[in-house]
Write the structure tokens for this entry.
Amino acid sequence: MLAMARSEIVVFGKRMLERSLVTGTGGNLSVRSGRRVALSPSGVEYEAMKPEDVAVVDLEGRLLEGGMKPTSEMSLHLALYHARPDITAVVHTHSPYACVLACLGREIPPFHYLVPLVGGKIPVAPYACFGTPELARYAVEAMGEGKAALLANHGMVSVAGSLSEAFRVAETVEFLAMVYSRVLSLGEPRVLTDEEVDQVLEAFKSYGPSRATVAPFEEG
Ligand SMILES: [Zn+2]
């Protein structure tokens, strides 16, 4: 399982770079399996990253399996896993438009129908220096039961039950942050009402790929 997690971290790390969610060695990702967490390494170029560079720690951050030194945001990842037993993956990016809003301290309200999919709104955690327990605590508090939060003057963090889903949330947040930033330059959007948000959530329950079946022909 952790061999798979290590490969996944390498694949999605490269994808973060390709999709411009990070630059250089910024951002980081992790996958939890039980009480073990595989974390992307600190300061390693995504293009050069190999599965064996990915270290495995326990939920207290004690090294279980070597690799390169884990990300400087390890406390952020571990705090989220402690607070949210329902999640098994964390993605942290410095995607440009999420950073724009994070630097303004502006949360993203449900101004677009996709916002409810990543939480009732996308909150902003107050500023704290990267790598500190304060940043981890603020992120946990801001995130609540949602799937994403902006980190003031820094970036964005998303969580989910799989790395592919946490990555999808990170991409959706960046799209929404881009649209919201542009909307704010032109005016103030109308924000969806609670009823409209509930309707979207209900409609999404039956959304997604599934096989279309033809009802059996009935003679009669
Ligand atoms: Zn960061």
Summary: The longest helix spans residues 163-186. The chain has one domain: 2-204.
